[in-house]
């Protein structure tokens, strides 16, 4: 009896596979492309071509990456690289890469720029960078090229089936609000008012992308910045504790982002918006580090001074050997081991990780 049942199931499965591969009545569960807007955590090397202090195109960055130092702020892959693997989308070109033209942009482009933020002035202490609005303009530039490669109807289907990833806001705190020696925002705005301003500006750009034809949006929240080696190195907090104020202010931003996602989903039918709970996922990794295989949670693998976080990873410094056991690669950025976990949770995690749907579910919508 059992055998027959199994056989039935196998035959039924074979029919399903045959139907889906012939495309009859089944939506193609793949994104056409991936367009990425963000900061250093996902910059694939855009800043290599800018006059910026925020660069990572030198050894030992990329020590575990097939191409060596590419400009990624990690020992290896970024969240976008891992998501691309899961979605079967080849590595995206950086917008500033001279080869990012013609057919090479058909599976998407990465516009993320280290030190860039939602506000125009964010990160100006580090030199040139692409702000969120610059990144949207760069996408429009690519869109003109895409228009020459397909007709109007093809283009609108292509854009509707593309995944947009936005990971912004960290620099609006680290390289703006929390740097009172350079920026006045910390004096002028209360944390609540500042979060309101950021989310208002963010909304404008998300809707601009929607107006251009994009329909599927993953919007990552800010992680627990109060726990990164750069913040721990301020010495504002006893060993083993994160900087509470920093975590509090970024949480205010995240709360507003969740509410924005709810509003966008109810106001704009025909498009979908998901919130990636980076804060919760990252905090879980910090809080349960041993279960994830991490033994060092409060120091950069490469860096100088207190918590290896006072000065970030300098050219030719010798990184730690056991990189898979470190949560942080440098003063600001996680190791690829953490990036992989974050990508998987965005891809297939429960609603506590990715709300109201995850990336895998978005692909099927
Ligand atoms: C969504 O619609 C509500 C009700 O009209 C409005 O108050 C809110 O500002 C809208 N939000 C967005 C992001 O469009
Ligand atoms: C950290 O973990 C402990 C026990 O696993 C739990 O009780 C606590 O709520 C967690 N803290 C946070 C902030 O997630």
UniProtKB/TrEMBL annotation:
Domain of life from the UniProt record: Eukaryota
Places the protein is found: Secreted
Gene source species: Fraxinus pennsylvanica
Alphabetic keyword roster: Coiled coil, Hydrolase, Lipid degradation, Lipid metabolism, Secreted, Signal
Pfam families: Lipase_GDSL
Main location: secreted
Molecular function GO labels: hydrolase activity, acting on ester bonds
Biological processes, Gene Ontology terms: lipid catabolic process
GO CC term (a single one): extracellular region
Protein name per its UniProtKB record: GDSL esterase/lipase
rRNA-binding listed as a keyword: no
Coiled-coil stretches: 129-156
Signal peptide: 1-21
Similarity comment text for this entry: Belongs to the 'GDSL' lipolytic enzyme family.
CDD domains: SGNH_plant_lipase_like (cd01837)
Transmembrane residue ranges: none
């Amino acid at each position: 009896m059992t055998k027959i049942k199994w056989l039935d199931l196998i035959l039924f499965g074979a029919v399903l596979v045959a139907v889906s591969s012939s495309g009859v009545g089944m939506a193609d569960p793949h994104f056409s492309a991936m367009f990425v807007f963000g900061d250093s955590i996902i910059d694939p090397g855009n800043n290599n071509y800018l006059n910026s202090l925020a660069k990572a195109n030198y050894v030992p960055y990329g020590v575990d990456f097939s191409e060596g130092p590419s400009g990624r702020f990690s020992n290896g892959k970024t969240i976008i690289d891992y998501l691309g693997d899961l979605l079967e989308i080849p590595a995206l070109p950086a917008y500033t890469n001279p080869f990012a033209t013609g057919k090479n942009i058909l599976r998407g482009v990465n516009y993320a720029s280290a030190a860039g933020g939602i506000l125009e002035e964010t990160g100006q202490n580090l030199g040139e960078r692409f702000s969120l609005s610059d990144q949207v303009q760069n996408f429009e530039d690519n869109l003109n090229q895409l228009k020459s490669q397909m007709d109007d109807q093809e283009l609108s289907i292509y854009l509707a089936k593309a995944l947009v990833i936005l990971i912004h806001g960290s620099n609006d705190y680290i390289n703006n609000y929390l740097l009172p020696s350079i920026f006045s925002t910390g004096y002028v705005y209360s944390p609540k008012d500042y979060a309101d301003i950021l989310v208002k500006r963010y909304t404008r750009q998300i809707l601009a992308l929607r107006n251009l034809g994009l329909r599927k949006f993953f919007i990552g929240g800010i992680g627990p910045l109060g726990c990164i080696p750069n913040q721990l190195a301020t010495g504002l907090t006893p060993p083993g504790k994160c900087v509470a104020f920093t975590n509090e202010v970024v949480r205010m931003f995240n709360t507003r982002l969740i509410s924005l996602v709810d509003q966008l989903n109810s106001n704009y039918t025909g498009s979908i918006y998901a919130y990636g709970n980076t804060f919760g996922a990252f905090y879980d990794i910090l809080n349960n580090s041993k279960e994830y295989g991490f033994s060092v949670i409060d120091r950069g693998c490469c860096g100088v001074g207190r918590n290896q976080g006072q000065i970030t990873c300098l050219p030719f410094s010798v990184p730690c050997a056991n990189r898979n056991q470190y949560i942080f690669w440098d003063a600001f950025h996680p190791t690829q081991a953490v990036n992989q976990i974050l990508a998987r949770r965005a891809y297939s995690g429960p609603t506590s990780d990715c709300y109201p749907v995850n990336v895998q579910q978005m692909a099927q919508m």
